[in-house]
TrEMBL record, chain A:
GO terms for molecular function: heme binding. GO terms for biological process: cytochrome complex assembly; protein-heme linkage. Gene3D superfamilies: Nucleic acid-binding proteins (2.40.50.140). Its main location: membrane. GO terms for cellular component: plasma membrane. This is Cytochrome c maturation protein CcmE.
From TrEMBL, chain B:
Residues 102-324 form the Cytochrome c assembly protein domain. InterPro entries: Cyt_c_assembly, Cyt_c_biogenesis. Keywords: Cytochrome c-type biogenesis, Membrane, Transmembrane, Transmembrane helix. This is Cytochrome C biogenesis protein. The lineage of its organism: Bacteria, Pseudomonadati, Bacteroidota, Cytophagia, Cytophagales. It comes from Pontibacter arcticus. One of its GO terms (cellular component) is membrane. Signal peptide: none annotated. The chain crosses the membrane at residues 12-29, 50-71, 105-122, 134-153, 206-225, 237-258, 278-294, 301-320, 340-360, 380-398, 431-451, 463-484, 496-517, 529-547, 822-842. Belongs to the CcmF/CycK/Ccl1/NrfE/CcsA family. Residues 848-867 are annotated as: Disordered. GO terms for molecular function: heme binding; heme transmembrane transporter activity.
């Protein structure tokens, strides 16, 4: 066998390894129900959950707690997933500043005991581009 | 008044540019046909040239029109309104130009024009290439100009014009229904994160890199088309180097911008937008290696074709990823979706299909040698190096494309829910680190073999010295770092040790090459120089990322039982104003909020600034001085160039030792984007200290003031307010009140109160005024102490007066601080790598255009290589 063939085979093998590892490391978007099931099965892989903040009738956010004076690294809130399941989420970091304004929240993490521990929070805020308020600059 | 003329000029120019690109590509195509070439007829070529010049002139006119709209603040145009504002300085107006998709397309088009004209000039010397290469250029321009065409035919929207008027863009807005000629007074401004000098030069550099990848691609395609399978490599090679260096420098600039402006704590976040450029760059560097190998030994031609074509297709893929909106949730900073995804896909598909089909069609005709390479052939190792680069690129590609898989599956009717890996850093590192190791080893071996005879003995001779130095140095550093406490890091992780040792080897091996070439021909050492740069970059990345150390651990003792009490990250610390906290070897205090003031070289305390209704104007409450020089006197009007940014003064003092320094991390609360915090970095020789604000009390929330306590006092009294001793010095009438127009009959009196804080004494001057028979009170806040003092009332008969005091919680910031060892090595390495590339451009360019008197040069070079 020629050297170039051996190298070719090695390259293909590495490429297959890359594809398999990508598939293995890729996370999934799940609901809280499935996240809880995974945790019960002892599967600690991190997942993505998409949801909205829990609000009461007056549109106030419910169950959110951040007291930087007590602990600047503890932020907790209630998230309602697409199946309308509520779950307490804990984030060991300061509260993202525009959190209340977000329309949709994507969290990455896993269930630990009875709470979902998030290590990343991605906020989808009302689009900066489309909903810019002309009237505001108009009044100036 | 709406100025429609400039927009019409711009839009007409876009159409002219598009039509001229169509004409030029057709005419160049005709000129490149074998029949035309054989007949010696140059009329098609001359016609095509004119069309390309017309295209170029039109492009310049588009740029002029768009910049004029921004520069003259013509907010009747959506582009100016959404990307610019009245207060932007000129250099940021330039960044506005390419903040939007349309402007960045224009930038790209502009660079193609510049390169195209350079190639036409080049073509005059080297006639055979002009027609086929420029046909490809014009064809690309046709697609790119179509992106900003802004023509709607039925339901089909072709391109998005930057010259659209507000009233057409927002035809539903009621304000335009009332008055179609309404012009907004101000724009909504440039994204604050982009208001940075790097954003003035990073995009043009990056797009020049994008544009430059077209040159080797166009040459490769011309070579395939015209059957010049081998000749294209020589003229294309310097351009390939040029593309690699501009794309590389552009990417590094972006990384440096991220390091300095964003607060994720590093220079690389594996964001799809970053990856999208990194992938083609890796493949492009791979292409350079196969092309250089081909130039020396006539091997690797097919690989060169594949890699050059792949680079260009990947650039188009990057464009598709970042601009089509397909990334959605996956990226923080891609462009907004302009509804061009179909058009972008067509662009990508057209070139991918055309290039791949042509390559397959011509594949058999591309000469390939069947000669087997021996292990002592440098080319053998160069090819392995190219393969490693491509595999590294492929790994990033496979993961970055995850959002594309979802869309594709959705398109063919399956619902999938794959997400990007939860821990991206870990995922990418586990391959990229080993790719780094392989590349470090290969650069050493490859270079050593390249300049030696291809046999075992001479290789042994060459490698002995670098290998010994590597072993010596690395064992020294490993032992020192583990046994003795003289470094900030402990090099004990076997994976890191591997990368460290191999990178050191690459440095020494390439250094030995440079030393060897010093007394022969130093200009040949471009490869060795850039390889040293790469090795240094690897070292810089290893230490700055692998040994990044968060020093702002929360150890305030306030921890109380939560769901988990253990090792979880507590990387943010709350700092009360003027209360020092220990971090690492420093004692850190938060000293207050500061602002930038025009013409003052340092930041100015908020306490000295009296804000007015105009955000950008303020009045000095006291003398503003730096050192002994007074810049503004009390009552002077001062200008705030960036009123939205607050700088938080942090004093770092070494607990043992007398060194201290001050950092000003920046934050602003942006209406649409939340808290935008940028770090301040203190650079030492061996590390950077990186500090950013991670949270502040919400400035929009009214402060919670305690109950008002009134005191009835006279001049000279001493009293205790909220645990601080205060002395009433007296009252005095004043003529001017900041921010108030005083008329005849108006009276203003200010009290002079001295408050003794823990660290220093504060003077408060609350004002009591009677204006137009109405009582007004201007309280003064002592933010350091959390006090607000109001002059309540005056009793002139008894010479007594009343003051009121409210107390609040003190001001605080929450911050995160980390050390990044040897991050400078990364930046230095990238500069050295670029120098190496530039040396190679000159060398390869000389080869490409041999000067008549230097005809003997190729032989002499052979000799050097053979030695």
């Amino acid at each position: 066998m020629k050297k170039s063939h051996i190298i070719g085979i090695v390259v293909i093998a590495v490429a297959i390894m890359i594809i398999m590892s990508t598939a293995g490391d890729a996370s999934t978007y799940v609901s809280f129900g499935e996240a809880i099931e995974r945790a019960e099965d002892g599967d600690m892989t991190k997942v993505h959950v998409v949801g909205r903040l829990k609000k009461d009738q007056q549109d106030h956010i419910v169950g959110m707690q951040y007291d930087p004076i007590k602990d600047p690294n503890y932020f907790t809130f209630m998230l309602v997933d697409t199946n309308r399941v509520e779950q307490q989420v804990v984030y060991y970091n300061p509260k993202p500043q525009d959190f209340e304004r977000s329309e949709q929240v994507v969290i990455t993490g896993n269930m630990q005991q009875n709470v979902f521990v998030a290590d990343k929070i991605l906020l989808k805020c009302p689009s900066k581009y489309v909903e810019k308020d002309v009237a505001k600059t108009a009044s100036l | 008044m709406i100025n429609t003329l400039i927009g019409d000029i711009g839009h007409a120019s876009v159409i002219v540019a598009f039509v001229a690109a169509v004409v030029s590509s057709y005419a160049y195509f005709m000129a490149a046909r074998n029949r035309t070439e054989a007949s010696g007829d140059t009329s098609w070529r001359n016609f095509a040239r004119i069309a390309f010049y017309v295209h170029s002139a039109a492009v310049l006119l588009i740029i002029f029109s768009l910049f004029n709209i921004i520069y003259e603040h013509r907010y009747e145009y959506y582009y100016a309104w959404s990307h610019s504002s009245n207060h932007l300085p000129l250099h940021f107006m330039i960044s506005c130009f390419w903040e939007g998709q349309e402007g960045s397309f224009l930038l790209w088009i502009f660079w193609h024009v510049v390169l195209g004209i350079a190639l036409i000039g080049f073509g005059r010397k080297n006639k055979v290439w002009e027609a086929p290469v420029m046909a490809m250029f014009s064809f690309v321009q046709l697609f790119l100009t179509s992106m900003i065409l802004g023509v709607v035919i039925g339901d089909l929207k072709i391109g998005s014009s930057p010259f659209i008027l507000m009233r057409d863009f927002m035809s539903d807005a009621p304000v335009f229904a009332m008055d179609p000629n309404f012009v907004p007074q101000d724009g909504t401004g440039l994204n604050p994160l982009l208001q940075n000098y790097w954003m003035v030069i990073h995009p043009p550099t990056l797009f020049l890199g994008f544009a430059a990848t077209l040159v080797p691609f166009a040459f490769a395609m011309a070579g395939l088309w015209k059957g010049k399978f081998t000749e294209w490599v020589k003229p294309a090679l310097p351009w390939t180097h040029f593309a690699a260096v501009t794309l590389g420098v552009g990417t590094i600039m972006g990384a440096y911008w991220a390091y300095e402006t964003l607060n994720f704590g590093g220079y690389w976040n594996w964001d799809p937008v970053e990856n999208a450029v990194y992938i083609p760059w890796l493949v492009l560097v791979g292409a350079i290696h196969t092309m250089v190998a081909y130039r020396r030994s006539k091997q690797g031609l097919r690989a060169s074709f594949i890699l050059v074509i792949a680079t260009f297709i990947l650039i188009l893929y990057a464009t598709f990823l970042t601009r089509s909106g397909i990334l959605g949730n996956a990226s923080v900073h891609s462009f907004t979706d302009l509804g061009l995804s179909g058009q972008l896909f067509t662009y990508l598909a057209a070139f991918a299909v055309m290039a791949v089909a042509l390559l397959i069609y011509r594949w058999k005709k591309i000469p390939a040698t069947q000669k087997e390479l021996s292990t002592y052939n440098a080319e053998f190792w160069v090819f392995i190096g190219a393969a490693v680069l491509c595999l590294a690129g492929f790994q990033v590609f496979a993961t970055t494309s995850i959002p594309v898989y979802n869309s594709f599956m959705g398109f063919i009717g399956f619902e999938t829910n794959i997400a990007l890996p939860a821990d991206q850093i870990e995922h990418y590192t586990k391959f990229q680190l080993w790719a780094g190791v392989a590349i470090a080893v290969l650069t050493g071996i490859g270079q050593l073999l390249w300049w030696k005879k291809a046999d075992k003995q001479s290789f042994k001779d060459a490698i002995t010295m670098p290998l010994m130095l590597t072993l010596l140095f690395s064992s020294l550093i490993i032992i020192l770092s583990n046994r003795f406490d003289i470094f900030d890091f402990k090099l004990d992780n076997p994976v890191y040790i591997t990368l460290f040792v191999t990178s050191l080897f690459a440095v020494f091996a390439n250094l030995s090459i440079i030393l060897g070439l010093l007394h022969k021909k130093i200009t040949l050492s471009g490869g060795a120089v850039s390889h040293i740069g790469v090795a240094l970059m690897l070292l810089g990345i290893l230490f700055s990322s692998g040994y990044s150390n968060i020093i702002s651990q929360n150890n305030s003792g306030l921890l109380y039982s939560r769901e988990f009490s253990d090792e979880l990250n507590r990387d943010n610390v709350l700092l009360w104003r003027n209360e020092a906290i220990d971090m690492d070897k420093y004692s850190v205090s938060y000293r207050g909020q500061f602002f930038e003031v025009s013409d003052v070289p340092e930041y100015v305390s908020k306490e000295l600034i009296f804000r007015t209704a105009d955000e950008y104007m303020a009045i000095a409450r006291g003398d503003i001085k730096v050192g002994d020089k007074v810049y503004f006197k009390t009552g002077d009007t001062i200008e705030l160039p960036s009123p939205e940014n607050t700088y938080y003064q942090l004093e770092y003092k070494e607990r043992e030792g007398n060194n201290s320094f001050v950092l000003y991390p920046r934050a602003q609360v942006n209406e649409s984007m939340g808290l935008l915090a940028s770090p301040d970095i203190k650079s030492f020789a061996t590390k950077d200290l990186y500090t950013h604000v991670s949270s502040i009390p919400d400035p929009n929330e009214e402060k919670d003031w305690g109950e008002l306590k009134e005191y009835d006092v006279a001049a000279g009294d001493t009293l205790i307010i909220n645990d601080y001793i205060a002395i009433i010095n007296g009252i005095e009438p004043i003529k001017q009140v900041p921010g108030v127009q005083m008329a005849a009959g108006d009276v203003a009196v200010q009290a002079d109160i001295k408050v003794m804080g823990e660290k220093k004494t504060y003077h408060a001057h609350p004002i009591f005024l009677i204006k137009d028979q109405m009582v007004g009170r201007l309280p003064e806040e002592v933010e350091d102490l959390g006090l607000r003092i109001t002059f309540m009332n005056i009793d002139p008969e008894n010479n007594r007066f009343k003051i009121g005091v409210n107390a609040t919680q003190k001001d605080y910031v929450i911050l995160k601080a980390m050390e990044k060892p040897f991050v400078n090595v990364l930046w230095i390495g990238s500069i050295i790598m670029s120098i190496g590339f530039i040396m190679a451009i000159f060398r390869r360019n000389e080869e490409g255009n041999p000067k008549p008197k230097k005809t003997s040069k190729p032989q002499s070079k052979r000799e050097v290589q053979a030695v």
